[in-house]
Amino acid sequence: MTREFSAGGVVVRRMRDRWWLAAIEPAGRESSGRKTVWALPKGLVDAGENPLQTALREVREETGIEAALVRKLGDVKYVYTRSWEGGERVFKVVSFYLLRYASGKLGEIEPAMRVEVRRVEWIPLEDAPRQLAYKGEREMAAKALEYVAHNPELKTTET
Known about the structure:
This protein has 159 residues and is an alpha+beta fold. It is 20% helix and 42% strand.
């Protein structure tokens, strides 16, 4: 079984007296009357990168913003079957980091990234554990929500 390692970011921002999370709608996932598929920015760890570097790069590429590390949230592990390469099974580990918005404008991404990302939105952090499409990502959003609730020093500045 092939192994893949990815990393992603749970980017939070304090605005209008509440916490928000940067979520992407992946391209190629037609809603067609169904609920929008919201996900976290993430991608494969490139050669020469560590998982944190990957998470920061993926956030920048997929959302258009820069973010700063708060802490590692955890790993999501699962097995999937590729729809290419003969249906090979893959064991995947995705490391997620809690990141705080630093700069940039959400959605200002390179045209080439539009193949992967249809749109980017700030969604209320308290809603993210229900709105994100994937179980492991919902768990990471819940961990982020718990962390910001128990660390009031993060509220000191709004952006």
